Amino acid sequence: MKKVAIVGGGPSGILCAIIASKKYDVTIFCNQEKLGKKILVTGNGKCNLTNLYNFDKAYNREISNYLKSFDNIKTIKFFEEIGLLTYADEDGRIYPISNTANSVLDVLINQVCKNNINVMTNQTVLNVLKKNDGFVIQTQLQEYNFDKVVIAVGSQDSLLKQMGISYNSFSPSLVALKTKEDTFSLSGMRLSNVKAILKGEANHEEYGEVLFKENGLSGICIFNLSAYLARQKNYNSIICLDLLPNLSNDKLKEIFIKRLNKNYTNSKEFMQGLFSEKINSYILKNCAIKNNEKITKKDIEKIINTIKNLTFNIVGHYQNNQVNSGGVDLNNLTNTLEYKYVKNLYFIGEVVDVDGICGGYNLQWSWTSAVIAGEAL
Ligand SMILES: Cc1cc2nc3c(=O)[nH]c(=O)nc-3n(C[C@H](O)[C@H](O)[C@H](O)COP(=O)(O)OP(=O)(O)OC[C@H]3O[C@@H](n4cnc5c(N)ncnc54)[C@H](O)[C@@H]3O)c2cc1C
Hints:
By secondary structure, the chain is an alpha+beta fold. The protein has helices at 11-20, 64-69, 72-81, 101-114, 158-163, 220-232, 249-261, 267-271, 277-286, 297-308, 361-376; strands spanning 3-7, 25-29, 50-51, 86-88, 93-96, 118-120, 125-131, 134-139, 143-146, 148-151, 168-173, 177-179, 190-199, 204-213, 216-218, 237-242, 310-317, 323-327, 345-347.
């Protein structure tokens, strides 16, 4: 029986091993003490394993041909067959019915055991060398011979460098962004139903929740905008928040005029009921209006403009990104994700230059690419 090495024990490596084990003697190499540790932290510990909607807009690359082979519906069915029940939330995000990522890992590990897949944990693959018709895998402990190799190392580039594989540089995506503006007073505040507009080259809009940090912005909306900055490999940009996207400027003006007519002219009272006190104060400060100062008609335009156009200069990103943009370019891989220049060498998952926005799309790429390569081996 031919021998296949899977380098990397994340979601893509594990699923590829399961598929390949139907035909081959499969070994997974993982540099951690357990397989699939990262799965446990996904989706805030619940694992958002795929999505029902919006695949056309989710990725940096056109991958519909790959998705045709193994899409979200096939993913849900596959997991059901191996024992995982799932549900969709109101935005179409798919989670295990148990609401814990442990269940996803459990059903995968069960298949790893049932299919007699060899697991080499705590072994870092330092290099993969082509030798005659096969490959030599060098770890810090030993050398092993294999007929075929699948690289599923995520966004760690040391192995790619060692192997001399060309790739697009990695940059953090789905990550909180640092602002030039001091947002300390707003730290920890959340606003849902915000429209966030990324200005400049990447011009893009997102709706949803924004979370303020000490010197920055976070929340799903911002994470999704960060994907566009990661792809352009430059985080310097401007994000404008429309804090009340469902109210037009005219409607807001009408509301504010009414407030003045009712003599709600004290700035604190004027802003009451719109946002939390901290956010109201931040807006007033932005308009150079003091708390308890008297609001006049000419302040109304300034306040509306700030609410509809709260501007932040983005100067970088925080740590703890969920994924990286970059990796082995799809142009260097065949339709089955085999490296065009080395036969029997495949790349899957995050190490390939395919990245998605929040919502289960990144794991879907892991599942899709794992099945395509696993079946093509
Ligand atoms: C906090 C967080 C939350 C997330 N939530 C979601 C979510 O809900 N939904 C979603 O779709 N995506 C989510 N993601 C993204 C998702 O986890 C990744 O897209 C996915 O894990 C990529 O899978 P992978 O197998 O390609 O790579 P990885 O998961 O990175 O796995 C690579 C594996 O290879 C091992 N490895 C690396 N180098 C070597 C080597 N030289 N030798 C041996 N082993 C090696 C690593 O230790 C690791 O085990 C989240 C990510 C994070 C960090």
